[in-house]
Amino acid sequence: MGTVTGGATGATGPTGATATAATATGPKQARSRVTRRHLLEAAVSCLAEHGWAGSTVSVVAERAGVSRGAAQHHFPTREDLFTAAVEYVAEERSTALRDLFHAGPAARPAVVEALVDLYTGALFRAALQLWVAASNEEQLRPRVTELEARVGRETHRIAVELLGADESVPGVRETVQGLLDMARGLGLANVLTDDAARRARVVAQWSRILDAALG
Q1: What is the rounded CA–CA span in Å between residue 80 and residue 136?
Q2: pTM of the predicted model, to two decimals?
Q3: Low pLDDT (below 70) residues in the chain
């Protein structure tokens, strides 16, 4: 009888412990994801507001409401943190852009305006600070170069899809890329002053250009 009881206890004990561990792991992973997201969002905000020189891991951790040790657990180096931050928000903005036009090609003025908006907010300001830092930081440059190439390809792909552009037609790919280059230029102009009025006129003109070029 004692043997049976012992076996039951042995079976119940580990099973209960495993269940408890599994239950604990779920909330722990969820908290880890939340902490990571807060760090990424705080890093983008810090870059946009304070630039690379003023954006340390400690400053970001304080804004995110976590310890420096917790920040370094997720991102061992400063470069890890800031490249991941810009990539994260770029992906979030791309998803939001796709969601705006989930049915496919949309009215071109609305698409042009949405694409320009990608380059006039905190994300672009943060990315700009990262570019400037990468021009002087050898260890950062290859990571930022690779990141920007990847983000650029994805943004171009989304633009082609939303505009209903046929890139097999000569000149169409360059026209779409010109739109994105123009949007980046408007973002740069907006860094120092509020350029909303002029930007609206440029967006309207580019919409007309696209209609003529894309058919």
Answers
A1: 17
A2: 0.70
A3: 1-25, 103-105
Write b or e for each residue in 70-80: b if 16 or more Cβ atoms lie within 10 A of its Cβ, otherwise e: bbeebbeebbe
Nearest to 70 by CA among 60, 79, 85: 60
**Vertex 211 angle, CA 123 and 202, to 5°:** 45
Count of C-beta atoms within a 10 Å radius of residue 120: 21
Please name the residues in contact with 20: beta carbons below 8 A apart, sequence gap of 6 or more.
none
In three-state secondary structure terms, 143 is: helix
Exposed, middle or buried, 109 (CB in 10 Å: 0-12/13-18/19+)?
middle
pLDDT tens-digit series, residues 5-60: 444 444 445 555 555 554 556 777 888 889 999 999 898 888 878 888 888 999 99
